[in-house]
From TrEMBL:
Family of the protein in this entry: Belongs to the histidine acid phosphatase family. VIP1 subfamily.
InterPro entries: Acid_Pase_AS, His_Pase_clade-2, His_Pase_VIP1, His_PPase_superfam, VIP1_N
Subcellular locations according to the entry: Cytoplasm, Cytosol
CDD domains linked to this entry: HP_HAP_like
Designated name of the protein: Inositol hexakisphosphate and diphosphoinositol-pentakisphosphate kinase
EC number, as in UniProt: 2.7.4.24
SUPFAM superfamilies: Glutathione synthetase ATP-binding domain-like, Phosphoglycerate mutase-like
Upper classification of the organism: Eukaryota, Sar, Stramenopiles, Oomycota, Saprolegniomycetes
GO CC annotation terms, alphabetical: cytosol
Amino acid sequence: MHSSCISPTNSEEDPNHPAFQNRGSKRYVVGVCAMEKKSRSKPMQEILRRLVKKKQFDLVIFTDDMILNRPIEEWPICEAIFSFYSTGFPLAKAESYVQLRRPVLVNDLSMQHVLFDRRKVYEVLIRNGVSVPRHAIVNRDGPNPDTLEESDNYVIVNGVQINKPFVEKPADAEDHNIYIYYPSSAGGGSKRLFRKVGDRSSEFYPDVNHVRRDGSYIYEEFLNTQGTDVKVYTVGPNYGHAEARKSPVLDGRVMRDSVGKEVRYPVILNSIEKDIARKVCLAFQQTVCGFDLLRVRGTSYVCDVNGWSFVKNSKKYYDDCGLVLHNYLLTALKYRYHRRSPSPRYNMSPKAMGFAQSQHQFATEPSQLMLDHAGEPFLPIREHSIGSSSSSNDPFELPNSYGSPHGARDARTSSNASVDDLHWLEKKEELRAVIAVVRHGDRTPKQKLKTRVWESMLVDFYEKRRTKDKFDEVKVKAVADLQELLDIVRTLIKEYAPNVGSKGAVWEKDGGDSFEKLLQIKRVLERWKFAGINRKVQFKPRREYMPPSSSSGANSELLLILKWGGDLTETGKRQGEQLGNRFRNELYPVEEGGLLRLHSTFRHDLKIFTSDEGRVQMTAAAFAKGFLELEGDLTPILVSLVTTLDKDANKMLDHSGQADANEEIERTKAKLRRLLQEEYASEEDMIANVAPLNTKSIVDALRKLQNPKEALGKLHDLIKHVKTEIKELALEAEKTALSLNDDKVQELYMGETYLLMSERWEKLYRDFYSAKKQEYDLSKLPDIYDCIKYDMLHNFNGVHASIKSGRALFELAELFVTCYVPQEYGMDVAEKQSIGIKVSQALCAKIRADIATAMTITREEKPSVVKSVYGGKSFLPLVQADEHDDGESLEHNGYRLDPSYAKELRIKSPGTQVRTRLYFTSESHMHTLLNVLRFQCPSWIARQSSANQALLNPNAVSEEEITNALLSEMGISTLPNDTSGAFKRKYSFSQTKLMSPEALDALDNVSELDYLAHIIIRVFEAPWLPEEDENRFRVEISFSPGVRGDPEVLDTTRSSSTSSASSFTFTPPSTPLSSSIPIAIPAATNNNLFTYYETPTRKDDGHLDLPMSLQVDNKIHLTKDMPGAMFDDMLAACVASVANPTQSNVPDSV
């Protein structure tokens, strides 16, 4: 089973003995003392096969019987040994053997004890300057166990608060049952990670929210790594190989290759991560060592150290590892036999050989630590004279030529290679970036209830939660707080109910709010479980508020505001997933497996940003599920893949971005309210006043309304009819529920009841018209439209019931919304420009940064001729940007494929990099961004009118400074340093390049930006063109008004959280019926940018009469051939115009 070996005698250890001096001509005996399952595994056999090829070692493989059953004195005598723990291995016995025979150790055995305890692992990492996630430890294995305080969304351990989402790790490193707990704002629940079983590595438990109490655990902050897990494999302190995979946190599905191995891809580490690899190797004295790495916003953390680990199925790694270990063993053994006074315990681990002393040099000079890619050594740079030979005591030193990829670095020509030298088999554009701004999906109606409260129980509830400021507003979202509030409301109802309607101690106060509001609060709080993101209660003290403890006497009246609804529906989730599917299948090149292959091989840089609104976040998560073909619940996907913008950057996508424009928006709304309630002498007079831009969709709606003031009265009457019909349905449902003893009879879509629906419409009727002022509140028009559309689609679609006045109300509300909503953001061009650039300034700055990055050719990215792995030549922008990262920026660098493994992985275009940025937002940002694209800003228009070619923009520097300042303020990386170079090209201005006449006509026909409306910006590169050519980069912008008509294609499947089927009979009128998820993708062969379709008619029986020849589509191609430099210049001017309003009306000289 093993080759024979001779134990060295004392004389052989004497350096003066002839036997010692002739030692170089003999083979060294190297043992493998590990369980057979490991020592005979394919990776180990591949490495050992390469070791023996040099014919300098005799290998001894220890059998399980030898290790477990025979005394160490009978174990083979070895001069060096591979020994490491795995299940069943007697580590203490192996240590005794080392004490007896004193072999050279590849991995230190005593330090392997540390690897059994995750707490000790973190201690060692911290002590050696390696970053670990912020964490707290609960020790329950001592005489005085730690205490843990648990709340809905955090735990407190020894005074340290860890907020959800957090990770719960057993202290025992052999226990792989790791749990992740999610906050209620993301839907709650927990994910359980475990050792892979078949094709599963985790499961989601939506109702398990409480932590374990049965042992010692580490609680650490969950770090969003964009769904990527990275494992680093070191072979000594100067060599590392990194592989990335889809994180098990996402959907728990294990991706396997054709032979059943989990799919992983080699990736490039940055210089900081190379230094981390070196520190881990030295700190744990493990030459061969694997550890888990997390890269988050430019900072890298180690979250686990595994000890002995080999890469599976990589010939290049086996070659590299074999040579590194050969050099290490040879140097260590030679070093041993030339030592005059060996230590009692001869440990030849990397640290013991003196590498720890050089740590300071590497720490202060990280640029000297070079891991060119995941499979190459990263060695200290030393100066050598040309032709001179040098020796090094570093056993891990490799020849400079060793380990370079087969053609990756050596085959690449100088970065100054001429573009004319490139040989293009076919001139095909390359997709460089996809940027999309998307409105959220179908949602429930947003609702709000306000009431004055003064009861001591409610005041005490407020007092316990407010800060020292007596006018502090208190927001209640936590499960425990909402439950306490519900209990108080129930108590108050029991107390006041007997006296309702009588004078005296009743809920009514001074003709104020009614007892009915208290009942409604109870119904809303009871209706849905306290989880997710569907309710919020606010307490606002009135101006005269005085705390009960005040000496001046209590005037403890509060305003209680209850908000609910506005949640993404099950239909909305399916819509989002379908849209993600279409993006994946239709926006990216299909070669080499399409987007999924591009993404899984780390050639796709994806980031998803959302505002902090729940419906927007969930839409993004549903989209990501379809986009990346994921499985399971949305909560883990949301937490792992979606970046919710913080306070500084939230204005990019949230309503807070409207702050600078609020005054103008309010003025426009006031003007609209006045104009729509006036009498006009003629229809043309009305159109001239209400639709100054003569937009076709608005003009058509006004002509149908004829007299808006009279139509508002009709609208109010229709609301009255609808609410009356709903009340009748509610009574019938209540009777049926009583007779059947089944409350579910009263349930509608998304768990709403007829009673809650009735209250919703009652409030709309009450709020829409003020009898006192004798005027209509037009701000309620969007709410009326949303409610009737929601009910017609989900509740009154023929599945449960129908109402006679529903369709008439929908048609009339739609006409008003068509006139009102788009013009909230400006009625004339100047207003649309001003409001548009103010609301969208931050988003435009971010899009500009995305475009600039996609169009920037860095020094390393300049066109180079490289050998294709399948023959021929190709353009390969090998980005070596790993030495620069963006720190804490939202735009930190992600992992990139190691191109040296392209041939082994059969990847034809390893240099392909596509940047995808997805922004999910609300309707207001869609309108304003569309206005910016359509109308631009005055300063840029003036600049273009003064010259037809932008030779030099005199404001370029100041515009760049403004953009960078705004990006920095939001915590986003600034524009690339090359902004004055490659992407700042000359361009010839043309109005048709900006937006075609057909596109403008098509936009005029858009009546609504419905759910999932989206704008797509794609950047293409023609790499065969010179860098300064304006056509080198082409921008294509497309637009879809979103879901039109049926929100789904005949889908009557029920969801666990809905009691009704989705709509399949109702289609809103005056809109083209289209596929369920229209997508703004230009058709390659279709020059007609927009097709008009007749509206399908509805027969008397309610069924749709669809024209058989109707082709379904409703996308608009705004532009197909705008030069990238032109688009960047336009965005730069728009972003800067907010900061420099005085420039808006001054033509710029060119």
